[in-house]
Amino acid sequence: MENIDIYCKYVFLENNELSEEIELCTLQGNQMNPFVKATLDNTYLIAWEDGRGDDLWTDIYIQEFATDYLGFENDGIPIGIGVHNQSNPQIQLLTQSSESSELSYLVFWDDFRSSGKEWYRNIFAQRVVFDVYLSSNEFTVIPSGYALYNNYP
Q1: 4/34 Cα distance (integer angstroms)
Q2: What is the average pLDDT value for the chain, to the nearest integer?
């Protein structure tokens, strides 16, 4: 397997048409096993295994997107990097926006950095917070801020 990349298309439900192909990550190395989560802000958060930094191991990267919008820098941003594989990313809603909390999602994955052994994995997680307003009339996304927090443990 050499240089596997991640692309996507947006499905317009009103007429079942597909958008043009959107490049999520086309860097050298394998990008694979994407997990897609629809957000409460009408965008999508994607996490995947990414081998861009090392020929042997994969890391976890994320990207937020909507029609004509990429929320993070091109080709995604790293949220789980370590020696040995980080794999099988998943995303779930962590907190909804309210007076006492920000909208946030939990990205979690299998992590082998502590042992390097296939049968001895840990689960690592990263909280992703972003404050985005998506206009329902124009499909325009206006980011007002992003925050990433340290891995646990």
Answers
A1: 12
A2: 80
